[in-house]
Amino acid sequence: MTDEQFPDPAVQVSGAQEIAPDLLVIPNQRVQLVPNIGIIGGTQAVLVVETGMGTANAEQVLALASEVARGRRLYLTTTHFHPEHAFGAQAFTDHANYLVNRAQADDLQAKGPGYLEMFRGFGDPIADRLDGVTVPTPDVVYDDGHDLDLGGRTVRLRPMGRGHTKGDQTVEVPDAGVLFTGDLAETGQFAIFPWFPPYDTDVSGVRWLAVMDQLTATGPRIVVPGHGDIGGPQVLGDVRDYLRELRDETWRRRDSAMGEEEIVAEVRALLIGRHPEWVGREWIERGVGCLCAEHASEPHW
Ligand SMILES: [Zn+2]
């Protein structure tokens, strides 16, 4: 994705916070390639959301989840196939039932090997984390949404269609008003557009915006983004507003026949000016590239 050397993406389980009764989040502490991880308990079972990258991270997450569970049954799900979210799942084999939506399972199978290879090229800390890692194989795959009964608490696993990837799903805990968005939302950074033509062009800015409108309407009280600080419903509104900005500024220039390179330069400067504190500036260019290839009426599923 970039040529820079990434820092070690270590999950810090000691930082786990209880954001609602029997609902822990291990915050990513703003470390790149570390996701926010959830541990959601009911009376009978506990669901882990995301594994962290690699088996060593995932083993720590599993250890904490097992300690929290105290004998309750364990489940695992992931929000999408990207390595820092899902590529620790093998540590949960024999300990938890791994459930995902169909499109994510397809992504794991079709794109998992390529992403494993690509991420191993991101420098030694990442290659070390991915040593011995295999592409995860889910135990249960569902076609539409899945309601998981944890005992006195039902969690809604919802595939969102194409957005950040082809297979994003959200995890909603209605009784606590908590929504895990995966990388459909981040805070403190520019939205992540994994637009790598010709290898991966599944991200859709147009569809992503539609998903954000839909998520905003569900009215969560607490939003756990894929990366960055946990917040209120405004997290969703901020991402939606940014995606609109990115789309409108890109399309305005494209429609006046400006070349893509020039569009990138102008939109990048403009958006950095509007969000000077955000990191991940390299994602602006990829977002512009994605939106340059899209049209409003395109049924881009
Ligand atoms: Zn992602």
Structural features:
301 residues; alpha/beta; Metallo-beta-lactamase, Chain A; seven-stranded mixed beta sheet; five-stranded mixed beta sheet; 8 helices; 12 strands; binds zinc ion; hydrolase; NDM-1-like; MBL fold metallo-hydrolase
Task: Give the gist of this structure.
With 301 residues, the chain is of the alpha/beta class.
Average residue pLDDT: 96
- End-to-end CA span: 24 Å
Overall form: globular
How many helices? The count is 8
Structural class: alpha/beta
| Unreliable spans | none
Range of helix content: 25-40%
Beta-strand percent range? 15-25%
Keywords: Hydrolase
GO molecular function, one term: hydrolase activity
Protein name: MBL fold metallo-hydrolase
InterPro entries: Metallo-B-lactamas, NDM-1-like, RibonucZ/Hydroxyglut_hydro
